[in-house]
Amino acid sequence: MQALPSFSLDGQVALVTGAARGLGRAIALALAEAGADIALGLRDVGRDAGLLAEIQARGRRALPLQMEMSEPGQVRAAIDAAARHFGRLDILVNNAGVAPTNLAEHVREEDFDRTLAINLKGTFFASQAAGRIMIEQRRGCIVNMSSQAGFAALPTESVYCMTKAGIAHLTRCLAVEWGRYGIRGNAVAPTVIHTPGTEPALAEPGFRAEVIENIAALHRIGEPPEVAGAVVFLASPAASLITGHTLVIDGGWTAR
Fold it and tell me: Domains, the chain, ranges and CATH?
């Protein structure tokens, strides 16, 4: 009997939404490094910032796809195109998300609607489209991007927190509903991570110091590979009995 479970994704096909930069880019590269071919969900299919070439340099196939997450028709078309191109779809990573900040009393309706459209509606309909393919295959894995914001109340981020809490519960619902088809559903919930999206906020000394203090156990800001590694684990055979779980990657923030 093999003592070490397999973390390899050789021969599998993964689709990553919001893949152009930040966590999405790191996750796409990590999945490729683990052996998967990658479909890249991009808000602008013409701008992959060299990601396609980086994946191909690792010996994996890559397919860029136009995928604006607030447009369910575009989401469905992209996922169907990925399955047709590769002949299968084993892994969906719902990474795309937005996080406008504002005090609750000042939240604008258009920001509220766009946050829900991308974070919740986009995640649901991407999962639905991938789920239909995976049900036919009788196998598959979905990894959603929640956040520590789904487990901790963060001032100025009420709408974002709400959507990330919703993603964690959606993950449980899909895991229970689709488990009989051999589909696993999990989520990761990162703390503040060094990405192009967080750079402006982290450049402000007061905010940076507050974040480092709140990351109670490790007192440092996370790096994209630390999230990508968790996604690879959850997508791999090593996590074959894990479903309906949200893995919090927060350096101890929510342990307080």
Answer: 13-247 (3.40.50.720)
